[in-house]
Amino acid sequence: MPVAVLAGKCLPRLRNRSGLVTPILFSDIIMAGVRDLDELEKEAIAEDELKVVGENGLIELSPDLKPALADLSARVDTIYVHVDLDILDPIVAPAAGLPSPGGLTGEQLGRALAYMIGDEKVSALSLVSYRADGDDDGRTLKEVMRAILLATSGLGHRGT
Question: What pTM, to 2 d.p., does this model score?
Answer without folding.
Answer: 0.88
